[in-house]
């Protein structure tokens, strides 16, 4: 009979037994596990401002779908600690590979909110310049961006840059083969990439328990030799601390890092989804009490880092931001419907030319 023993190499990869936490749901500070330190106070205050603005942006984008200005919008309300911490952990020359649910992160990164919403408005391109912003197009196919992220990380390393790549992914995406291929590829090549899993408990309507039997998604990195960690995703202080450490690990040449953040999607999957069909109101209410924005505000107030005036100022900035976004999104711009056909193939196929001619005839008939 063999006896299992701990192996140092394995121990170095293992995540904490329970998610890393600095601040409880009621805003009380707790002693974090060894190896992690709290971010600077000014960083936390800046994170609060960005979270307020991000939530206001999210609410406004949701309203724009009801007004017909957006075709679809996947809300990230409740996941702001993940969205903002992910951006703050990166340098300007680092790359971000987002999913379709990460618009708040892109706005916090400094991208024009109208450009961020271009794809969700129904445009044929992502709206912004990926090369200039170092933000890849928001990815709708699950997990495909993880392989792209590893490829970019490998390219940056080969070019001699010390930039890091962070790939956002949802819990549902970890069930895709692309995710596992990306982990293996990253570990073998020792690329400077951080896989950031926002585990919001549902892949559309499929709960986590029906997606995996793993004790936590963070353990999925172990089999590939990827250092992993799990963190309370509604605790901004903890998420920023862990992600900062993960980015430093990758930048120092130690290879990839997998971080799982335990969070919750407060709204439906998108405006086209009815979440009441697969989850109970009581569950949502329970997670409301762990609101990441309220938690950070209470924590900062308790440490005298945030005043009533600061809160009012942040909210006012959010309202001004939303007002500008409304005005810009409500302005009817000029569109060219024939752009639909311009970049499908280098040389248009016969079928494409036929479709273009059909559209032209229908538009002409509509004008008569």
Overall description:
This protein has 368 residues and is of the alpha/beta class. It has 14 helices and seven strands. β6 (227-232), α10 and β7 form a beta-alpha-beta unit. α2 runs antiparallel to α12 and α8 packs parallel to α9 (177-189). 43% of the residues are buried.
Structural descriptors:
two-stranded antiparallel ribbon; 368 residues; alpha/beta; five-stranded parallel sheet; single chain; disordered N terminus
The major pleated sheet works out as:
5 strands, parallel
Helix content: 40-55%
- The backbone outline, from C-alpha atoms, is globular
Distance between the termini: 87 Å
Structural classification = alpha/beta
Question: How large a portion of the residues is in β-strands, by DSSP E?
Answer: 5-15%
Question: What is the secondary structure topology, with strand pairs?
Answer:
Blueprint lengths: L7 H4 L29 H26 L13 H9 L6 E3 L5 H6 L4 H4 L1 H4 L8 H4 L10 H15 L6 E6 L6 H13 L3 E7 L2 E2 L2 E2 L19 E6 L3 H16 L5 E6 L18 H8 L3 H11 L5 H23 L19 H18 L1
Parallel strand pairs: 1-2, 2-3, 3-7, 6-7
Antiparallel strand pairs: 4-5
Helix pairs in contact: 2-3, 2-12, 2-13, 3-10, 8-9
Summarize the structure.
The chain is of the alpha/beta class and 368 residues long. It has helices at residues 8-11, 41-66, 80-88, 103-108, 113-116, 118-121, 130-133, 144-158, 177-189, 236-251, 281-288, 292-302, 308-330, 350-367, and strands at 95-97, 165-170, 193-199, 202-203, 206-207, 227-232, 257-262. 44% of the residues lie in helices and 9% in strands.
């Amino acid at each position: 009979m063999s006896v299992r023993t701990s192996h140092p190499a394995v121990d170095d990869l293992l995540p904490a037994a329970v998610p890393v936490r600095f601040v409880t749901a009621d805003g009380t500070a707790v002693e974090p596990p060894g190896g992690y330190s709290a971010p600077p106070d000014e960083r936390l205050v800046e994170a609060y401002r960005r979270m307020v603005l991000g939530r206001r942006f999210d609410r406004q984008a949701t309203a724009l779908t009801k007004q017909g200005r957006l075709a679809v919008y996947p809300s990230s309300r409740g996941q702001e600690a993940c969205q903002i911490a992910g951006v703050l952990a990166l340098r300007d020359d680092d790359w971000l590979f987002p999913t379709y649910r990460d618009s708040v992160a892109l706005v916090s990164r400094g991208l024009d909110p109208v450009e961020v919403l271009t794809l969700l408005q129904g445009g044929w391109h992502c709206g912004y310049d990926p090369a200039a912003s170092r933000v890849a197009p928001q990815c709708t196919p699950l997990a495909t961006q993880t392989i792209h992220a590893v490829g970019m990380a490998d390219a940056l390393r080969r070019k001699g840059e010390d930039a890091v790549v962070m790939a956002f992914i949802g819990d549902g995406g970890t069930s895709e083969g692309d995710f596992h291929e990306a982990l293996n590829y990253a570990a073998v090549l020792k690329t400077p990439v951080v896989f950031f899993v926002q585990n919001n408990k549902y892949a559309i309507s499929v709960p986590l328990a029906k997606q995996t039997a793993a004790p936590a998604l963070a353990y999925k990195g172990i089999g590939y030799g990827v250092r992993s960690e799990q963190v309370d995703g509604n605790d901004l202080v903890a998420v920023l601390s862990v992600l900062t450490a993960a980015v430093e690990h990758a930048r120092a040449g130690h290879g990839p890092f997998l971080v799982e953040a335990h969070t919750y999607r407060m709204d439906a999957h998108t405006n086209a989804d009815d979440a009441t069909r697969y989850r109970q109101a009581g569950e949502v209410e329970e997670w409301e009490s762990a609101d990441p924005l309220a938690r950070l505000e209470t924590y900062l107030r308790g440490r005298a880092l945030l005043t009533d005036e600061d809160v009012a100022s942040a909210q006012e900035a959010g309202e001004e931001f939303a007002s500008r976004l409304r005005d810009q999104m409500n302005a009817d711009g000029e569109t060219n419907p024939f752009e639909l056909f311009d970049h499908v193939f280098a040389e248009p196929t016969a079928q494409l030319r036929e479709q273009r001619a059909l559209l032209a005839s229908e538009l002409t008939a509509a004008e008569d």
